[in-house]
Amino acid sequence: MLTPVDIDRKQFTTVRLREGYDQDDVDDFLDQCSKALAGSIAREAAAQAELARVKSQLAVQKRQLEAYGSAPTAALPPVIPEYLGDVSRILSVAQQTADQQTAEASKAAEEHIAQAKSEAARIIGESTVEADKQRTRAQGELYTVQNTLTQLREQESKLRAFLTEHLTALGAKLDEPH
Question: Which of 38, 52, 133, 176 could form a disulfide with 4 if both were Cys (CB 3.0 to 4.6 A apart)?
Answer without folding.
Answer: 38
